[in-house]
């Protein structure tokens, strides 16, 4: 693969639990790319009581630290490393530790709002949108949040109906219009990653990159 003059940034957006993270994980492994996860950029709510934190609309774009996201993605594009925050989803606060994200020839930016803000979109070389029906996303979210985020199934269902679905229709679904590729979140992950690799190879005019496609895991 020819050496890139600047890091090549791939944005991956879509509804909650549409399959973004799994596609990003497989793609990152193949491209040896660090991933900036927007899920860790929720604003710190440690200054308000827990009872108020749980009432926050975490599916609105204002719940994320837009300024820090753009600053960090801009730094990665220029080849600099950043300290990605980590978020405690059970307590709705930003954890004390950070995670170093080094720049690299390819960098992934993954999250609900990866294609939402114009200044963030402008930093991306290619924009991917992973789509899935709400019925699919809800079942996946219940599985994830109960297992990984200390939630109950009832609380997940309540939040999904109250904010996740309506906010998705309002803020996330329209960002498909900014995508270079719109892929199905219920298609095999291998197929989606293959499609992205072929697209990026064509965009860069580098046929050597397309030869990585057969290495995609089943």
Explain what the structure shows.
The chain is α/β, with parallel strands linked by helices. The protein is 40% helix and 18% strand. It has helices spanning 20-31, 50-53, 66-77, 118-121, 134-148, 153-172, 189-204, 207-210, and strands at 8-13, 35-37, 82-88, 93-101, 106-110, 126-131, 181-184. The protein has a 5-stranded parallel sheet with strand order 2-5-1-6-7. Strands 3-4 form a two-stranded antiparallel ribbon. α1 crosses α7 (189-204) and α5 packs across α6 (153-172). The longest helix is centred in the last third of the chain and has 20 residues, at 153-172. It is globular and about 55 Å long. The mean pLDDT is 92.
Task: Quickly describe the structure.
This protein is an alpha/beta fold and 218 residues long. It is 40% helix and 18% strand.
Query: Averaging pLDDT over every residue, what do you get?
Result: 92
SSE sequence, one letter per element: EHEHHEEEHEHHEHH
Considering DSSP H and I runs of 4 or more, what fraction of the residues is helical?
25-40%
The percentage of residues in β strands lies in 15-25%
Query: What is the global morphology?
Result: globular
Count of β-strands? 7
Provide the spatial order of strands within the biggest beta sheet.
Answer: 2-5-1-6-7
Our count of helices gives 8
- Our measurement of the CA-to-CA distance between the termini, rounded to an integer number of angstroms, reads 24 Å
* Class by alpha and beta content: alpha/beta
The biggest beta sheet is recorded as: 5 strands, parallel
Using the CA coordinates, give the radius of gyration. Answer: 17 Å
Unreliably modeled segments: none
